[in-house]
């Protein structure tokens, strides 16, 4: 993992990630998740014992856990080429970021590169003068996933709240096609809309109301649509600071396991 | 022991040969020779079969039914209740009713189970063996929340020997007290007094992708049948003109796959390509055309794609949705319905669709990458528990909606005097569940509203013809395929059914190969929760699928849990090993299977129910984990089968995992690469085929024939057979256990309830009455009881009660002037019922019942005159004895009378017998013992069988059975003919020689007629013979005159109606060809339906009494005889406005 400030894209192995975003607030980090320590210890041990022949232990590294209220989200840029991962300069800047907290919906605007292969006239004419590419994604809660960094030969693990895969979202196309559709329906009125209609009013019985409840995904879409999005400030170069805060917090606590190894393993497999 | 043997041999075979034979007999003296005792040295290879009885002790033969039912009543019911727990009122928003818990047959307050009417009493009294269903509910009454426990909502039929049955874990004493047979396997229901089995149903596995190809039409399709509690639907991904589309029943036309993926949120075509094709350029070439298809439609965004799909959805909805919403709904819930999306993220579904597409692309690229529908790993068995669960949920939903309707009805009324208590109306509907369950089980019609499913023939009456037939029914699997279709694939023997499904036991004819039977050691899994397994996978290092980018998806192995991609791993083998280790250490349920599919780069984990699996010994580093010590502990009772699982010595493998393993058949075959060792090879056969001695020496179809005939053999049925009153029961009077047993016979207790006798057979020709497999029987043997059997037939009468308080009565007997009962009433007692032990002959009465003439109008006093006699009259060629008379009260308070009639039968000409090798024959002649051949010892055969039965049938097993049986008789031991093992022929021959007989089983016989020695040595010895249920007495039939059908006036059809013997079309052709016209006339008309008609010669129509109604004259009317059927035809034609006119001519002109 490179140390330099914020980066959109990180090392080869973990091709995507890693944009540490400090959204609303960075709260005090309390460390209390005892289980997690065990988990990694356990798996480490297992791996070591089992694969000691072909995969010897090179080094042992102390682990530090951050754990309570970090608001760490991973944004994965699905469409980014792997080639530009390391060249930070080629990463486009972020113009705006919007977030709907209830629905975990992210929207990020990236200004279009108008210097090359961009037909400004066409954009103006056909697509309402589109200026930015919007990326959209739904956050998926990622339990027991951690972001880690090394500092002073110690590993620091910070739990991740959600992972979001950002995908292109062509709002301008949808807008234009909606407009077209409306115009079309105005131009070619259907027989049904022209005909004079007799409107009959009936008293809606109470039971009908309950049947019209939306459920499942439809409800989720409706909620997401109605929720106002929060405009977020895009701040870069905060990673170093964030790290320091974690290191500081972690150093104030020492985690001790409350369960025996066996109890823990049994709990895991339940 | 060895010394004793040497001595014996000396005495038997003379002194001078002793020296030379010693070396030959050395083998016999070795400790591994059979007859070894428990105290002897333990040899793993020989003794690991002891795991099998240990397995059957915990599992039993019908354990799959019991497990399935137990799972249903213990776990599944709770899940159903939880899924339907709330009843809300549309009228009163405050009102709710919630189901908290459900129990069967036990109140929460009491510590003991409810008293249930014992099963045998239910059988006798035509009742249903059931237990009450109790629910705990919480509901509002006015402002208060009330908790009510133990509300009965109906009764659930209970599977015998399940954990809700009173026979569960009952010892032999309790079983005897309850009139139950301790050997009865259970696993069936008793509904209205009849025993009903829910047959195991075979189906294609649900929620899995199946890829098929039709090379001729160039179609490749991937399909998945999604099944949830709510609905069932099928989704296809198919090719059409080289392009790939999605097809679904509720979407009007096929949708280009790229549009579907875009609708799932995979907007970028790069990502689509990555998900479907990965880096493989040949896949990319195949798939690229689909991207063009979408761009031709001008679909670029998710919204456009959703609207495109939404416009094509054709489901009926109560509420109006916009096209966008329709599209969302279609993608979220309709397509691949088992992955219902509840939130905004469609990635899981997108991946599933992409996987289906990838499988199609793979199959296009390589036509071998298709799935086999007939592969047992792609099938699931549906058992009683699952079927009842489906039914119960349907009934419970109905119950709830009825309940809700009646609550709403009350709550609607604005001014109620009292607070409404919902509990009052719950009992009104409780009969629906009870009767719904009863009706479905007793008729076998499974109709499920929510799946719009109608299935008939799900249940069958348990066949109690013999113990084996009942057992065979419990292990039977019926297929969903149509029997009439002429397909070979589903009927063929599948290599993957090895050890899972019996290879021999299937019926002949139309259901051949479609009806199968379970092998001896199979277990069928029940559903297991996915979530803990998913969690476990992540713990042992699977990367969560929601965090993986599309580019790296296909670089690694995918982990599929019940067919759904949940993550990837780079080190598949390591992951699988870890998972297996956890399973072997008991941390994960032993019935969860995991295997690697390298073609699809997939690790498949299955937790679903209905998979067939079987236990195998684990082999590690070329060594069986089960050691001699373990087996010694097992035999001493220190270990049971489950301990072997816990210790990680034995594990269950399902078909898929079995095919990912390297299994050694015997210990000597173990190589360093072996992963498992077979417990016993004879477990490839099922319970029924396990009866055959030396089946591995027989031609394969012979074993199949025996499987069909073993079920028809008359024998002992159960220990309670004399307490049973069944419609028809056949019993053998002196059944014997076979001389040549198999291990299976001992395991299924066939030796305790046998169906056959050891007959001494001479294989020779005798008398000419033995052609076409007919047998010659010894009269003296029959006198001694060979083949003697008993039939018991039940008659049931109900004394009905009528609305006007009258009821059917039983009259006394009528007497003549001497005070003696009249002949018809001879067997009656003073109570008007037959007396036990009395003989009833044809025409005599054994239930003297009368019914009231007036059953509707009010009762008018005079009792005697108003009854009509409707006695039950005995009609049969042979007399019967009254065995039992039972009078009781059935469920609906009407008197129930059952009379059991018994007939004792000795074998006669034409009765059918068979050995255990598919060799059936009828009795051709019964010969006096004096005339039969005899050997040096004076033994004459019970049966003489014609040697022509052998060459074409190639039943070598039967010959070896004879030799083993003969050796056993001489040796005083029971020999074994276990499949792939059993007593060795050489050993048997040695015993024969030892006892002074020929090694080949041939004896010198003397003719009983001339007393001369027969020219050839005769193959002579005991063979186990079964008497089959087809007996002449039940079939013989003749008629001189008798009843005629009303409509046609032709003789009735069938023996039961005393019908005529038909001279059919082919016989008619023969008679015509022969020119016997008068015979033809006699057979077809005079002896059938001759009828004299009056034909008018002028108009050609028929009149009557010499008068033509058409011509209004009697002038030209001629009498003639035609068949009544012909007359009927003319009249029917007339009724259709067609006038058949007869033109008559005199053939005997001067």
From TrEMBL, chain A:
Keywords: DNA-directed RNA polymerase, Transcription. One of its GO terms (biological process) is tRNA transcription by RNA polymerase III. The keyword Transcription applies. GO terms for cellular component: RNA polymerase III complex. Residues 23-56 are annotated as: Disordered. It comes from the Eukaryota. The keyword Transcription applies. InterPro entries: RNA_pol_III_Rpc5 (IPR006886). Pfam families: RPC5 (PF04801). PANTHER family: DNA-DIRECTED RNA POLYMERASE III SUBUNIT RPC5 (PTHR12069:SF0), DNA-DIRECTED RNA POLYMERASES III 80 KDA POLYPEPTIDE RNA POLYMERASE III SUBUNIT 5 (PTHR12069). This is DNA-directed RNA polymerase III subunit C37. It comes from Maudiozyma exigua (Yeast).
TrEMBL record, chain B:
Transmembrane segments: none annotated. One of its GO terms (molecular function) is ribonucleoside binding. It is an enzyme of class 2 (transferase). Its EC number is 2.7.7.6. Its main location: nucleus. Gene3D superfamilies: 2.40.50.150, 3.90.1070.20, 3.90.1100.10, DNA-directed RNA polymerase, subunit 2, domain 6, RNA polymerase alpha subunit dimerisation domain, RNA polymerase Rpb2, domain 2. InterPro entries: DNA-dir_RNA_pol_su2 (IPR015712), DNA-dir_RNAP_su2_dom (IPR007120), DNA-dir_RNAP_su2_hyb_sf (IPR037033), RNA_pol_bsu_CS (IPR007121), RNA_pol_bsu_protrusion (IPR007644), RNA_pol_Rpb2_2 (IPR007642), RNA_pol_Rpb2_2_sf (IPR037034), RNA_pol_Rpb2_3 (IPR007645). It is found in: Nucleus. Residues 60-435 form the RNA polymerase beta subunit protrusion domain. Residues 688-1057 form the DNA-directed RNA polymerase subunit 2 hybrid-binding domain. Keywords: DNA-directed RNA polymerase, Metal-binding, Nucleotidyltransferase, Nucleus, Transcription, Transferase, Zinc, Zinc-finger. Belongs to the RNA polymerase beta chain family. DNA-dependent RNA polymerase catalyzes the transcription of DNA into RNA using the four ribonucleoside triphosphates as substrates. Second largest core component of RNA polymerase III which synthesizes small RNAs, such as 5S rRNA and tRNAs. Proposed to contribute to the polymerase catalytic activity and forms the polymerase active center together with the largest subunit. Pol III is composed of mobile elements and RPC2 is part of the core element with the central large cleft and probably a clamp element that moves to open and close the cleft. Component of the RNA polymerase III (Pol III) complex consisting of 17 subunits. This is DNA-directed RNA polymerase subunit beta.
């Amino acid at each position: 993992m490179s140390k330099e400030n914020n980066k959109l894209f990180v090392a080869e192995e973990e091709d995507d990630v890693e944009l540490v975003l400090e959204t609303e607030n960075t709260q005090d980090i309390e460390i209390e998740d005892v289980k997690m320590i065990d988990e990694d210890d356990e798996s480490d041990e297992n791996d070591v014992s089992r694969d000691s022949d072909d995969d010897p232990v090179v080094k042992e590294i102390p682990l530090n856990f951050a754990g309570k209220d970090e608001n760490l989200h991973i944004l994965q840029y699905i469409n980014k080429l792997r080639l530009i991962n390391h060249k930070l300069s080629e990463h486009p800047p972020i113009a705006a970021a919007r977030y709907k907290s209830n629905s975990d919906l992210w929207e990020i605007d990236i200004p279009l590169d108008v210097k090359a292969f961009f037909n400004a006239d066409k954009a103006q004419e056909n697509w309402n003068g589109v200026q930015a590419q919007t990326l959209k994604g739904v956050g998926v809660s990622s339990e027991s996933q951690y972001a880690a960094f090394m500092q002073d030969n110690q590993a620091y693990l910070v739990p991740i709240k959600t992972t979001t895969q950002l995908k292109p979202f062509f709002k301008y196309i949808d807008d234009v096609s909606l407009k077209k559709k409306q115009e079309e329906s105005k131009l070619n009125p259907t027989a049904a809309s022209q005909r004079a209609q007799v409107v009959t009013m009936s008293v809606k019985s109470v039971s009908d109301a309950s049947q019209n409840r939306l459920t499942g995904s439809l409800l989720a879409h409706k909620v997401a649509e109605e929720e106002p999005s929060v405009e977020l400030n895009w701040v870069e170069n905060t990673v170093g600071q964030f790290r320091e805060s974690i290191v500081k917090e972690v150093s104030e606590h020492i985690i001790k396991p409350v369960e025996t190894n066996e109890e823990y393993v049994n709990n895991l497999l339940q | 022991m060895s010394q004793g043997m040497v001595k014996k041999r000396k005495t038997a075979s003379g002194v001078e040969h002793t020296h030379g034979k010693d070396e030959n007999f050395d083998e016999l003296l070795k400790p591994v020779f059979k007859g070894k005792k428990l105290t002897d040295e333990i040899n793993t290879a020989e003794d690991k079969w002891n795991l099998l009885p240990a397995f059957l002790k915990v599992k039993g033969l019908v354990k799959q039914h019991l497990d399935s039912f137990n799972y249903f009543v213990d776990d599944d019911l709770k899940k159903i209740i939880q899924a339907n727990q709330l009843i809300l009122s549309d009228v009163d928003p405050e009102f709710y009713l919630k189901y908290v818990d459900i129990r069967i047959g036990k109140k929460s307050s009491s510590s003991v189970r409810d008293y249930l009417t014992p099963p045998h009493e239910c059988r006798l009294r035509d009742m249903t063996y059931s237990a009450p269903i109790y629910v705990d509910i919480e509901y509002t009454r006015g402002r208060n929340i009330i908790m009510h426990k133990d509300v009965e909502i109906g009764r659930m039929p209970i599977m015998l020997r399940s954990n809700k049955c009173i026979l569960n874990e009952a010892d032999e004493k309790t079983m005897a007290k309850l009139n139950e047979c301790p050997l009865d396997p259970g696993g069936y229901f008793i509904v209205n007094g009849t025993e009903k089995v829910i047959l195991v149903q075979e189906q294609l596995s649900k929620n899995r992708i199946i890829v098929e190809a039709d090379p001729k039409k160039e179609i490749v399709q991937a399909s998945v049948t999604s099944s949830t509690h709510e609905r069932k639907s099928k989704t296809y991904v198919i090719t059409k003109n080289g392009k790939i589309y999605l097809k679904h029943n509720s979407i009007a036309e096929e949708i280009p796959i790229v549009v579907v993926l875009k609708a799932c949120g995979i907007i970028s075509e790069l990502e689509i390509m990555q998900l479907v094709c990965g880096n493989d350029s040949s896949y990319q070439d195949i798939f690229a055309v689909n991207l063009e298809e979408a761009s031709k439609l001008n679909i670029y965004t998710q919204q456009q794609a959703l609207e495109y799909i939404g416009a094509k959805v054709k489901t009926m909805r109560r509420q109006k949705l916009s096209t966008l919403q329709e599209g969302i709904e279609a993608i979220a819930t309709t397509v691949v319905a088992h992955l219902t999306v509840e939130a905004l993220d469609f990635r899981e579904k997108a991946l599933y669709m992409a996987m289906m597409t990838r499988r199609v692309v793979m199959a296009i690229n390589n036509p071998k990458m298709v799935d086999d529908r007939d592969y047992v790993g792609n099938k699931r068995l549906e058992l009683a528990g699952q079927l009842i669960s489906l039914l119960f949920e349907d009934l419970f939903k109905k119950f709830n909606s009825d309940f809700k309707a009646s609550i709403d009805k009350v709550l609607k009324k604005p001014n109620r005097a009292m607070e409404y208590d919902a509990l009052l109306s719950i009992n009104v509907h409780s009969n629906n569940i009870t009767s719904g369950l009863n009706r479905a089980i007793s008729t076998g019609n499974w109709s499920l509203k929510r799946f719009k499913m109608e299935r008939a023939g799900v249940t069958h009456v348990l066949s109690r013809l013999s113990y084996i037939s009942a057992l065979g029914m419990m292990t039977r699997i019926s297929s969903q395929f149509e029997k009439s279709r002429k397909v070979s694939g589903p009927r063929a023997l599948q290599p993957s059914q090895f050890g899972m499904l019996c290879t021999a036991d299937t019926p002949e004819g139309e259901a051949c190969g479609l009806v199968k039977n379970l092998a001896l050691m199979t277990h069928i899994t029940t559903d297991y929760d996915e979530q803990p397994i998913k969690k476990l996978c992540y713990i042992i290092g699977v990367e969560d699928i929601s965090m993986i980018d599309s580019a790296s998806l296909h670089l690694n192995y995918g982990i599929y849990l019940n067919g759904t991609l949940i993550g990837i791993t780079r080190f598949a083998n390591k992951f699988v090993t870890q998972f297996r280790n956890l399973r072997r250490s008991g941390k994960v349920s032993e019935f969860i299977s995991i295997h690697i599919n390298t073609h699809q780069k997939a690790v498949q984990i299955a937790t679903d129910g209905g998979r067939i699996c079987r236990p195998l010994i684990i082999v590690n580093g070329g060594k069986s984990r089960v050691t001699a010590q373990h087996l010694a502990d097992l035999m001493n009772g220190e270990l049971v089968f489950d301990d072997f699982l816990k210790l990680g010595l034995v594990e269950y493998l399902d078909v898929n995992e079995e095919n990912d393993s390297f299994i050694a058949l015997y210990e000597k075959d173990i190589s360093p690469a072996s992963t498992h060792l077979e417990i016993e090879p004879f477990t490839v056969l099922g319970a029924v085929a396990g009866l055959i001695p030396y089946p591995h020496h027989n031609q394969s179809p012979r074993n199949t024939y025996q499987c069909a005939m073993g079920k028809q053999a008359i024998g002992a049925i159960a220990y309670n057979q004399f307490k049973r009153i069944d419609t028809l029961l056949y019993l053998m009077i002196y059944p014997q256990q076979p001389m040549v047993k198999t291990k299976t016979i001992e395991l299924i207790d066939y030796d305790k309830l046998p169906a056959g006798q050891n007959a001494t057979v001479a294989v020779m020709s005798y008398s000419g009455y033995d052609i076409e497999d007919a047998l010659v029987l010894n009269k003296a043997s029959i006198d001694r009881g060979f083949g003697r059997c008993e039939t018991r037939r039940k008659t049931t009468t109900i004394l009905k009660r009528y609305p006007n308080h009258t009821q059917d009565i039983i009259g006394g007997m009528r007497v003549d002037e001497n005070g003696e009962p009249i002949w018809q009433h001879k067997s009656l007692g003073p109570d008007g019922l037959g007396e036990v032990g009395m003989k009833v002959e044809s025409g005599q009465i054994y239930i003297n019942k009368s019914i009231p003439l007036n059953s509707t109008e009010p009762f008018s006093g005079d009792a005697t005159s108003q009854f009509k006699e409707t006695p039950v009259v005995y009609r049969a060629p042979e007399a019967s004895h009254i065995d039992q008379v039972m009078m009781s009260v059935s469920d609906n308070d009407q008197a129930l009378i059952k009379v059991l009639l018994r007939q004792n039968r000795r074998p006669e000409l034409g009765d059918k017998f068979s050995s255990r090798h598919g060799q059936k024959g009828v009795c051709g002649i019964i010969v006096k013992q004096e005339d039969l051949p005899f050997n040096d010892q004076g033994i004459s055969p019970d049966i003489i069988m014609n040697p022509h039965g052998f060459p074409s049938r190639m039943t070598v097993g039967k010959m070896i059975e004879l030799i083993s049986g003969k050796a056993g008789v001489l040796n005083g031991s029971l020999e074994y003919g276990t499949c792939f093992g059993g007593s060795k022929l050489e050993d048997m021959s040695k015993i024969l020689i030892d006892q002074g007989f020929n090694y080949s089983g041939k004896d010198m016989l003397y003719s009983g007629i001339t007393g001369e020695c027969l020219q050839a040595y005769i193959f002579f010895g005991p063979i186990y013979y079964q008497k089959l249920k087809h007996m002449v007495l039940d079939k013989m039939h003749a008629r001189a005159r008798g009843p005629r059908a009303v409509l046609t006036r032709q003789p009735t059809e069938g023996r039961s109606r005393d019908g005529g013997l038909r001279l059919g079309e082919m016989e008619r052709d023969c008679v015509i060809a022969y020119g016997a016209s008068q015979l033809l006339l006699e057979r077809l008309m005079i002896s059938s339906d001759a009828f004299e008609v009056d034909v008018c010669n002028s108009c050609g129509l028929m009149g009557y009494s010499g008068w033509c109604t058409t011509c209004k004259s009697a002038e030209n009317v001629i009498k003639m005889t035609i068949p009544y059927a012909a007359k009927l035809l003319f009249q029917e034609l007339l009724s259709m406005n067609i006038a058949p006119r007869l033109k008559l001519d005199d053939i005997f002109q001067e």
